[in-house]
């Protein structure tokens, strides 16, 4: 494959929704789905895809490694501000689309992919994106091996037990790398002990405000799974 291969999986220009993948997920052994929060959309595509590329390069064995695919999932109309993020209605339509995409990924991989087998899938949902993922898991089920609620102040559920998924749930402190979504509006903090998620602790301050960077060592273990 060629370096920096980017695939457009879906787009809705009118609503500003888009799904982009670094490498073909059908041919991957590990797939990471990044669900951004406040202000996500076509206008922020450059920043979000660069974060996906940065994560890919930190996880992949080399820059042409196509066994790993990182998807930037912007398939919902995100709130533009913390005030709008108090409203869960922004998350509901995207939750259905996220759940559907996660169902379709292993189907297309088994039919068209190189390995004819589903990849290990990790969802990393940032800030308000954690509410999207939480609603998706509660209402539709989340077909993923792991869910990381990154800087998420509330996932729309009282505990991880309400999330319908077979994989494990992880969380990070929302007051360190959040996106501005107000605390206490969409349920308890996922990193609270009573929530039941495995809490990831941050490393040094992240580069250029990227909330993912400081968790890379632990994310590597989650993405690649048990050895």
From TrEMBL:
Keywords: Hydrolase. Gene3D superfamilies: alpha/beta hydrolase. Residues 15-172 form the DUF1023 domain. GO terms for molecular function: hydrolase activity. It holds the Pfam family Abhydrolase_8. The keyword Nucleotide-binding does not apply. The keyword Phosphoprotein does not apply. It comes from the Bacteria. This is Alpha/beta hydrolase.
